[in-house]
Amino acid sequence: MTVEVRTFVITGEDSVPVEGCGLSFSRDDHVQGAIELHVNGVPILGRDEIDTIDALWSLLLTYLERFAAGKEEVFNFPERRWTLNLERVSGARVLVTFEDGLDRRRTVASEKSVVCGLAAGAVKFFGAVLSFAPIEEWSYRRDFNLAMKMRAQYS
Questions:
Q1: CB 109 within 8 A of CB 117
Q2: Which pLDDT tens digit goes with each residue over 65-80?
């Protein structure tokens, strides 16, 4: 089972991979971007699901941490009326569902691959952000460390 995660940042009219955007991140900047998430070849999230990207990743990490602790709830995007839901089903698998009011995308995959894949995406995102962020943005370091912990826990 494969989980592919990439993060894009909106710069002008373009969306570029976060690793090469060159933007200086700060929590006050409200940088817009999107997470591209494919699970077993099914596009769950794409470049059209734009939100404040650092807040989105930070809240998604908190959601993953709560999910790993056994709490099942729906994740709401910070600025949109969209939801992402991980629901445990039989055989150590999860039903991954995205809904935006008009569209529903869903697939089933192993819990380990989904959580580890999302955590790895967060590690990549916050690692890139830390290379561009002002030194005083300690919350990015906190999120990076949480993503590292989640990835190790599900590896």
A1: no
A2: 999 999 989 999 999 9
